[in-house]
Structures
1.
Amino acid sequence: MNEPVLAGLLTDKYELTMLAAALRDGTANRRTTFELFARRLPDGRRYGVVAGTGRLLEALPQFRFDDDACGLLAQFLDPDAVGYLRDFRFGGDIDGYAEGELYFPGSPVLSVTGSFAECVVLETLALSIFNHDSAIASAAARMVSAAGDRPLIEMGSRRTHERAAIAAARAAYIAGFAATSNLGAQRRYGIPTEGTAAHAFTMLHTHRDGPDELAAFRAQVDALGAGTTLLVDTYDVTTGVANAVAAAGPELGAVRIDSGELAVLARQVREQLDGLGATRTRIVVSGDLDEFSIAALRAEPVDSFGVGTSLVTGSGAPTAGMVYKLVEVDGMPVQKRSSHKESRGGRKEALRLARPTGTITEEVVYPAGRPPEAAEPCRALTAPLVEPCRALTAPLVRGGEVVSRPNLSAARELVACGLRSLPWEGLNLSHGEPAIPTTHILT
């Protein structure tokens, strides 16, 4: 495996060349705010899920440049810039949405405030983490909604970069997945793991007179107990189920089907298991599942789902499409006016309105420190301010010190609450507008 890359080098060259130019002309210490947000949601999506906050806060203290890194930088940076980076420590403030919060177009997911020099160099690190993790969590949340109350297992490690696999498992767990197959994610984040055997173990028990599936199942049960999950579609599903129950008895934990017409097979397998007395044996299905195929199986006797490729690739949206833009300089709002890439100036905060029932109705983005009660024009709001509202922006870093520690359990609960709060049409898998409108109150 490749050696770890220093966090400071997980960046784009132009951030450091901008830094060098700013140090030279004296603008490096101007007080700035950069904002991380999505101009729009990926095609077909009605909401996004914030994920990656904890990983960014973990990476921030490691964002350094050692002697080897500075040797590389000296090839294209002047000595003053290299010296600045050699001693770099982020000393600014970061505010943002809590991990697990829903977001919509224009939501100020993250605000990074400090000198231009210390904020600009964090752009690529922040975007690479949030664009990846939020894409995975957003796809995972759709799958969780499609599955109802049935658990999902993340099984996509072999379909992505070995380090991205751990981040993907974390993001899926935040969104509501019950477990992962990745041991690295268990070790690093304490995520529960699941996994028993692949087709290879069944085929291993092949002799000159042919395969011996029953021997393979007996060996697995002997090693892992009757509560294990037996993969029954290596050869013939009906024979596989019969062999599974013969090997483990009616207390067999589960069977897994990884191919074929899953809906038809699930019904047939349920009937066969019940007929063999294995009425409590669960049925797990896997094999190129996504939110749409999971939804199609919702009425079938499936107890849990294993999802791989579509999850770790964002199920058609491999990036969240977030950007990191300068919005304030020395207290003055600044904004980009490029066609189709506009930004709104000024440091911002946000709150979300909801009906008394808890169903959310609108997101309100306003100038930092000026909530709608004091801001004008309040007539821009589409819902009265007497509705219950909840502040979304919270302090994450102050003076370079992390003040909000990552908490996966809290993030999972926040996603679950967020999904419950969406209007019913917001959970649709079909194309449509964002689940709620976003109102921007200007200065």
Note: Confidence is low (pLDDT under 50) at residues 374-379.
2.
Amino acid sequence: MNKALLIISSLIISTLIMAFSSFAMATTGVSTLPEQPDEDQFARPSGAFDKPLESIRLSDPAILADKKTQMYYMTGTGGMLWRSKDLRMWDGPYRVTEFDSNSWMGARPMIWAAELHQIDGKYYYFATFTNREVKIDTVRGNVIERRACQVLQADNPMGPYRAFGDSIYLPANRPTLDGTFWRDTDGKPYMVFCGEWLQNWNGTIEKIELKSDFSGTIGDPHVLFRASDSPWSREKDENGQVTWNKVTDGPWLFRTGTGRLGMLWTSWVYSDYTQGVAYSESGTLDGPWIQEANPITPPNYGHSMLFQRFDGQWMMSVHSHAKDSRGRTVRIPHLFEVDLSGDKIIVKTQ
């Protein structure tokens, strides 16, 4: 494919993404499509750790602290990977995924909210993949594309990450996103994920059991809670009445120092991306899940995950929204220190 055709193709894709996002903003008040990386972020990495964290544009940043290599690896939306020795200066981006054009994802799927998990000597890439060529539903004028969570595998954190098990993990007739990993008290591995609001207008957070080697899923999904359970999210409905926001994003499981099971998740308070927390009364994924009354991070921070620095300090990785010089919304990674020693998570925002 020649250079002119590549440029034209890129412009067409960007126009489609912007049109869909604008329509979603007009109908719901929030954008549903995270930005994909700019073309200059696909440049060949220099191998130098010369990029400050705040200079990187990335939605849904997730960081693996890999003790084996003594390196931090950051993934997120867009399918790229950065690495750092100190969390301040980063090397990248690297493309680390490979796809089979015959799979449901296609040869070049959109990639959202990728996160890495190192388990039993293998590296697993939990992410949301969208095949924009396949449409699965139309609800209230929104055409819904084939989008689902899947797990890829590699032998080292730099990849390449490839599909290795069942062809699908979640039902093909539903849009799902933001899958993450948790091993519950029964010793079984689970994927915890969101049922996207676009189809039912009341987003969900659900679980499904994973096979012991993460190569597929077992049984059917089970709803843990719904967007309508939130006491803090806000939007105005079609009649202008204030109500809960329909979006569920970015679940992440953790235990406090007292053994309490918590879940971070994100929605919106009008136009501010906002993050809350829920705690399980049973201490298991089955809940019931009790929502904290107020958000736990400042407005405009969300879709977080937790990791431990090599010195033992717990950290929260989030992104915030800002406008660039051309007036476009960009997402910027940010780190907060976290205290998990008590009965509740405490985010150190100062």
Note: The radius of gyration is 19 Å.
3.
Amino acid sequence: MFEYIFRGLLNGTVYALLALPMTLMFTTAATVDFAIGAYALLAAAVATAIPGPLGIAAGLSSALLASGVMAVVFVLLKRTSKEGIRVALASFGLSLAISSIVLIVWGTKPFVRQTFATVFEFGALRVNPQGLLNGLVALCLVGLTWLVIKRTQLGRMMRAAAANPSGAELAAIPVIGVQCGTLLAGGLLGGIAGLLILHSSGMDFTASLGLTFIGFAAAIIFGIHSPLRCLAGGLAIGVIEALSAGYTSGMVTSMVPSLFMLIVLLSGQLGAGRYSGDRP
């Protein structure tokens, strides 16, 4: 059981990394980017096609390019309407488009790379070094994001852009620029998450929506306004997923994370009072 929990915690840190762009976008623009899973998929696909460190750089660049397309769409939509739901729906459409492109170019073959041929053994516990590396990278990025949002001038600008865009513009804050920069940062984070998954469990062209759902669930389950809450949500989902994979059948395993999220939300962990504090 301990091995399942430990593996779930390692997986959960990557899920938190997928949730971070959701938190950043909500903090800055009061909406979410549902193309996060597509950025991860695209980065993994490109990195698979190009060997070596160049492939990693190309994968991250492709994720940034895709998020740049979303930033252009965001600016165009903001000129005609202030409703965040339109941006969210547009990002969902972009996600489907990217998945289709990956299917056309790379086909149905899975994307996976194994960096380490050995495993660490701690008694009865066997750990892949890639899992430890994933956890370390994800924790560092979560901590860095928290520091940026809570302790820097940029973080205050991001929060002001969502809380009072008109007032922020009067205070000489480039609201649209900050929001577009947040989209690009989300694309980079999604690309990093995709590369980490590529070198551990791998994925295929169908992974986009699943990764987006996991990231969204991890972001909202304990409150979307904090990177640390994203981390807690990701860890919780990772552990529940690992335990269900170890002790239940395959059909039940795919349902358990969704059921867990539903139970937590219905139990009042994400009540109306918490929404009022999501945006400063």
Note: The mean pLDDT is 86.
4.
Amino acid sequence: MEKTDNGEVLETQSTQTAETALPDDVLLQVNDLKKYFPVAKNFFGKPIKFLKAVDGISFTLKKGKTLGIVGESGCGKSTMGRSLLRLYDGVQGEILFDGQDVAKLKNREFDKLRPNMQMIFQDPYASLSPRLTVGEIIGESARQHHLVDKAGFHDYVLKVMDMCGLQPHYFERYPHEFSGGQRQRICIARALALQPKLVVCDEPVSALDVSIQAQVINMLIELREKLGLTYIFISHDLSVVKHISDDVGVMYLGNIVEYGSKDSVFSHTLHPYTKALFSAVPVPNPHVKMNRIMLKGDIPSPVNPPKGCKFHTRCEHCMEICSRIAPEYREVEDGHFCSCHLYNSEEDTLRLLAQADENERNEAIAAEKEANKPWNKAKAKVTTACKNVVTKIKNKFKKSEQTEQQPQEQPGQTEDSNVEEK
């Protein structure tokens, strides 16, 4: 088969890209991950407004390590975890898992890869089917993916159950017969039955007591060391994240604002939001006074986030540039990334301000062009006419109400007044 010179060069480049997509010690690399949910549509059914749950996330996760994701409720932590496993459709960006772009794989191709990526859900009560026994719940996926035959099914499930601290006689029982901690162990056993490489733990201990939390966390650490697992651990509890994680990412309104190793993030915090988040952690010492950083206002809506830095409406270090353009996600220290204008150099600040001016000019030109379109002109005229009609009707009703409220003179009153005057 003959090939042109250009064709040979292209083929060589694509082969090198597939081979050197990820280093040997990297299991997962995420580039500009986005997940938008439509919340409004136009007359023709086209989405025109979106909820930006995950808005451009990038990170790298090495094999055998644990990445902890923290942030307040509604910042997109769980949506990010589900998007990595393609539990949502319409995910944008690159999800490189073992050199394969998960976001671009077809369903049949991804089915072969799915056993390597599993998830432990937050609610152990809702994530287990009440109609199946524990043995069926744990072994159903292994049977579906042909990891075990019919003869060895029972022994394989018992082996997984023993690894997760479940007794053999639990095999024939149903989920309603167990406590919360035991149900969470069943969820962990179901995920590990497929022998995965990556496990996304979506707040697996948030619904458990403190003593049970410690047992489950220690079991996850033992399984990671024994099986060589890689975790993405999503949690609100900063102490738990500090205990189990190697790297930590802090999310705010769909973005990672700070990312680095556990020691660098907890000992040398950079972003103002991370400092406020860590200041809320209680210290078990009544003699230590906490310097709590109180954030003003509520978290903005992800449907209509503020322009520029999303945190500038609540930040005490807000500057002019913060409200005009979003900060760049950069490496401030060795392996420590942050997205904040406080760490810009003078050259970076001038460059970003010039870019903000250009963006504002382009937005003004685009808005003027959009307003001058015939359809938008006609729409504006109709809207103005409707408002005028509504205003006239309201004024008429107000006048009629005022005339009704005015006191009317009774015929007897005038005669009595004339008599008094005489």
Note: Confidence is low (pLDDT under 50) at residues 1-20.
